[in-house]
Every structure is written in C-alpha cells, then in structure tokens.
Amino acid sequence: MSRTGTVQAVSLSPAHTFSKASQSAIMLRAGLGVEGDAHAGRTVQHRSRVAQNPDQPNLRQVHLIHAELLDELRAQGFRVGAGDLGENVTTRGVDLLGLPRGTRLHLGSGAVVEVTGLRNPCAQIDAFQPGLLRAVLGRDEQGNLIRKAGIMGVVLAGGRVQPGDGIRVELPPEPHERLERV
C-alpha cells in the first residue's frame, strides 16, 4: 500500500446538494470539517442521520474519493468529475478503501484527517446518473458487499488544502480494524 499520494481536487457546497463545486482551496477546521460546507459540524449534518439522532457525533466531516474510481467510472461511460459524487477531497495514489479505521491522512502542510469509515452510497447517486449506484458497489469472492464510493473522516488538525498538495498516510497501531460504513 502506498503511504503517499496527491490531492487532485477539493470541493465544497454550502447547501445540502449531491455534488460539490470544485475550489482552488478549502480550509479544514479541527473538529468541524470543511469550512463553508453544509456537512461541517461537531454533530451529524447529513439530513437522514439528523432525523435519526441530531446529537450523534459527526463522523462524516470530510468525504474523500480516490480519482482512480472516477477513472474507472468514466471508462464505463459515466460522466463524473471531481466533486460530482459529493466528495470534499479527490485523491490519487492512495488506496483509500484499503486503509484501516483510525488512519491519519496528512494533507498539505498541516491538515490531518482521521479516517472513520466507508461512505455508504444511497439511491440519490442514481438520480445523478442512472446505474451509478450499482457501479460503485461490488462483491468480493465471498459475496460480501464492497462499497467503493470513498471514505469519511474527521478533522484532527486544520489547515488549507489545495490541488497538488501531498498526502502522507500514517497507519494506526495494530491490530488494524477494517473500515465499516459510517
């Protein structure tokens, strides 16, 4: 597994929209998420989760997707670019889905995001482009569901993040815990 990568794009949306607009840079705020993004906050901000329990901690402050997934989807005929699937940070060169829970991603000169789990894609993704939900889900050799739509994290240290910034992966102590949906 590569321990380094690159930020390809950064995106945010001040409203609860499916896609997020690409930016020249974003500011991560410790304990909150992406400044100016609708999903920033100490408690859960995703509308379906607020309806369940508005006081639960926000384990989904930052959404990261690997650019390699976008490449794969484009090869299948989908029209997707950075931010289209709702991610804040589009990465390249890091196997995001293979990271254990608690991994720390050092972005740029000072921002640190701790990985909390997998994004669980919902039916909204098919409203964006029909068939996309099936394309971001798979099955392993045992028939277990594989969620490929990125990972979620919380901001431990804030800072400015922009395209071209380096990513350094810091694995947690073993034993490693597999990512589950959050």
From TrEMBL:
Record-linked Gene3D superfamilies: PK beta-barrel domain-like (2.40.33.20)
GO MF entries: catalytic activity; molybdenum ion binding; pyridoxal phosphate binding
Superkingdom to which the source organism belongs: Bacteria
Domain MOSC: 20-170
Protein name, per record: MOSC domain-containing protein
Organism annotation: Deinococcus phoenicis
